[in-house]
């Protein structure tokens, strides 16, 4: 390996530091001889690249927007949800990080293997429940004494939110999520081995005056079949393939060209009183606001397109196009 060549400025800075005592020559020799060792924790093995983590973040940013709209409509109060962080950690660390008593929903992700966990902070869960029952959204933490009615209402609310999860993931894979379990004690959950790598998506959530976190735990076994699809290269390649699909543009153009379009030409307008309208008789003449010297306007779906002049072609009424009406231009009849 070739020695690194220092520039003159770097040599001058090094000599200046040695002469001023800021650096010790002996210490430099010891540092050079010592081996550079970096600590690696095998329990926290990183199994997802930064690119894949960013893709998961984009998916759940879309999910957060959909969930905000859904809960706003269901609870009829101010709701704001956004992605706070996306990390990969051992499953054991995730279990230790959440409260000992909390709201846990376990979903299957068919056709993907394994299951994922949604952990709703009790402050958020009870604010939702209070709004559903007609309250102001007050949060009261009593997870250890949930009634069957409260559990059923929460389960129903979380089940109805699955359409948003399905839509958010549709850009990567078509899933059919199903709520399988509703639990309050994380110690009873052993989805994967303690050292298994999981991705934890944390969502900052505000409902009314209550705030808390929604944590989504996705084990590696769930994401393993679709890991190649989580790269930016795959998404760009997919979009490129879609754009260059042979004959797609030509077929779309052909379909548009064969579509029927209703056109109309307005001869003019006038205003009369209701009394005059009721007294109209055959051969009565009404004066329109359209001058015979001005062109008429051709419209399609009430959109002004062309200036035209009336006439006949083969004994049939017809119009001749004189000029195209530019966008933003006010036609003569308006």
From TrEMBL:
Classification via Gene3D superfamilies: CheC-like, SpoA-like
InterPro entries: CheC-like_sf, Flag_FliM, FliN-like_C, SpoA-like_sf
Annotated localization: Bacterial flagellum basal body; Cell membrane
Domain of life: Bacteria
One GO CC annotation: bacterial-type flagellum basal body
SUPFAM superfamilies: CheC-like, Surface presentation of antigens (SPOA)
One Gene Ontology MF term: cytoskeletal motor activity
Keywords assigned: Bacterial flagellum, Cell membrane, Cell projection, Chemotaxis, Cilium, Flagellar rotation, Flagellum, Membrane
Mode of membrane association: Peripheral membrane protein
Flagellar motor switch protein FliN-like C-terminal domain boundaries: 255-325
GO biological process, one term: bacterial-type flagellum-dependent swarming motility
PANTHER family: FLAGELLAR MOTOR SWITCH PROTEIN FLIM, YOP PROTEINS TRANSLOCATION PROTEIN Q
Family per record: Belongs to the FliM family.
NCBIfam families in UniProt: fliM_switch
Protein name: Flagellar motor switch protein FliM
Species the sequence originates in: Paraliobacillus ryukyuensis
Lineage, opening ranks: Bacteria, Bacillati, Bacillota, Bacilli, Bacillales
